[in-house]
Specification:
The chain has 184 residues and is of the alpha+beta class. It is built from seven helices and six strands, in the order ααααββαββββαα.
């Protein structure tokens, strides 16, 4: 029995080392994953993050009579909305895109409508509508997380895309299925 007692602590020590080694490998893989995500995000951003909007602009070209924001408008939403969106506002402005299928909106203009439908919402800002009245809402969930939601007043439905602002403009908006479901 004395021999078995000596072996048992040694096995427990090995298991402890194996567990620590596995956790270390997980941390390393996770850090590598984060590195590539942040590197990709940085490469997506040009001046004011315009590369984020390239696919959007190709699919929905800017209309005429776009309204540029004032310095006060930009200041009101600094820190509340993504810097890429504020840069887009500065570069292009509010108004119709894609022949009126989509409209980049000034959130304050739609705040009362949003409150009427959803009640008082913190950190929710309407930023885009379709030509048929569906409102797309940016939600700032934390300092590092956000997502996009919709309010469809015709069918009385709301929903969350559970996807970040950047992914929404890079992947969802340019997708043909979004256009078919909400814009036509």
């Amino acid at each position: 029995m004395e021999g078995n007692e000596r072996i048992r602590p040694n096995i427990m020590f090995r298991r402890h080392i194996q567990t620590d080694f596995i956790l270390l490998k997980i941390k390393i893989v996770f850090n590598i994953y984060l590195y590539f995500i942040f590197r990709e995000l940085k490469s997506c951003k040009g001046e004011h993050g315009m590369k984020v909007f390239d696919l959007f602009l190709n699919k929905y070209p800017p209309g005429k009579n776009l309204r540029k924001p004032t310095a006060e408008m930009l200041k009101q939403f600094k820190g509340k909305l993504p810097e890429e969106l504020l840069g887009f506002w500065r570069e292009y402005g509010f108004g119709n895109y894609g022949g009126g299928l989509l409209k980049i909106i000034y959130p304050a203009d739609y705040a009362d409508a949003l409150t009427l439908w959803l009640g008082k919402q913190g950190n929710c800002y309407p930023i885009l509508t379709t030509g048929f009245g569906t409102i797309f809402i940016y939600r700032k969930l934390s300092e590092t997380a956000d997502d996009m939601c919709l309010l469809d007043i015709h069918y009385r439905r709301t929903g969350s895309f559970s996807i970040s602002f950047l992914d929404f403009f890079e992947r969802i908006l340019p997708d043909e299925s979004l256009r078919n479901n909400f814009c036509e």
